[in-house]
Amino acid sequence: MSKNIAFFGTKPWEKEYIESKKEILADAALWFTEEILSNDHMPKETNFDAISVFVDSTVTKEVLAKFPILQFIATRSTGYDHIDMVAAKSKGVEVSSVPSYGANTVAEMAFGLILSLSRKIFESYDRIRESGNWSVEGLRGFDLMGKTIGVVGTGKIGRHVISIAKGFGMNVIGYDPKPNLSLAAEFDFPYKPLNDLLAESDVVTLHLPYMPETHHLMDDIRISLMKPGALLINTSRGGIVDTNALVKALKDGRLGGAGLDVLEEEGVIKDEIDFLVSGKPEGHDWKTVIANHVLIDMPNVIITPHNAFNTKEAIERILDTTVENIAGYMNGQIKNKVE
Ligand code: NAI
């Protein structure tokens, strides 16, 4: 039976790519919008059997309630913390994600952030571009070779980070509630308790999922355990780091810098005008929004707009898997189901 399927937050080239797979989705009526989906961004039409969203949409219980015949959500991401899974389950809506599309892609970006900080690449470039000044005064960095990197979360992305770190001649320490002993043997690194990892690492990089248990994992106390002058890299989810605690540690000079591809309240900061005029500040933390602005202005902080996934190869893999996930739903065989 034909299904109505809506894609939210899709750029024209993504629409074109998905439509080029029409033979796989033959029996579907596809509807596309560049708009995200959230409480404040509801489409006029909601009679869809399935929807597809990216992490910039927020699929709350209220949003779900407005789709009367919804059966399936295909998120074009690995993480699914932007979907209220409890509400989806109780409404009988199945959810599929893209379990793996570019573990190397995110790991490469984590190293991009590390090198930007360790070698002051942005400041170097900015100095030449803004003032034509070729002085290296203040641009001294530090070697990665021989330094220790603490990898928090040694899953698919963490594995690639470890492999790259070894290529740089770094010492690796891992922390994961489910240690992967064959990975530790393959790359010859120890697993240690999180507090030890924090105390011993020159660079701490986060590659774990965001869940209620990992909310503010890096809080005031854990950040204070980090080695003085260490770098904190977050390409996971903003909520894993307590933004206010991070600002304090950077301001006090206890941390050497931070490389952040994700921020708490990043949805608000991406579209502040819309947020202000929508008049719906409920559920948002203004203090964190202000702290984000403080971070953006700090010279030893590099922030990118949740861009770690964004390579040509990774996007094509995301769209291919999403199309397969939707085809699975249409054939009554859900693939890559989020439990
Ligand atoms: P994965 O599921 O392969 O690995 C996650 C690892 O974290 C697992 O080994 C798990 O045991 C571990 N873990 C769970 N709780 C933990 C805790 N409290 N402390 C330390 N480790 C813990 O996931 P993958 O593919 O490596 O992705 C990791 C995260 O990266 C995703 O959940 C997602 O939020 C984020 N991500 C960010 C992207 C971006 O564009 N910035 C793109 C893709 C993923």
UniProtKB/TrEMBL annotation:
Domain called D-isomer specific 2-hydroxyacid dehydrogenase NAD-binding: residue spans: 111-308
Domain D-isomer specific 2-hydroxyacid dehydrogenase catalytic span(s) in chain numbering: 21-336
Q: Which SUPFAM superfamilies match?
A: Formate/glycerate dehydrogenase catalytic domain-like (SSF52283), NAD(P)-binding Rossmann-fold domains (SSF51735)
Gene3D superfamilies from the entry?
NAD(P)-binding Rossmann-like Domain
**Highest taxon of the source?**
Bacteria
**Signal peptide interval:** none
Q: Which keywords fit this entry according to its UniProt record?
A: NAD, Oxidoreductase
Q: Which family does it belong to?
A: Belongs to the D-isomer specific 2-hydroxyacid dehydrogenase family.
Q: Which PANTHER family match?
A: 2-HYDROXYACID DEHYDROGENASE HOMOLOG 1-RELATED (PTHR43026)
Q: Give the protein's recorded name.
A: Hydroxyacid dehydrogenase
> Organism source for this protein?
Candidatus Taylorbacteria bacterium RIFCSPHIGHO2_02_FULL_43_32b
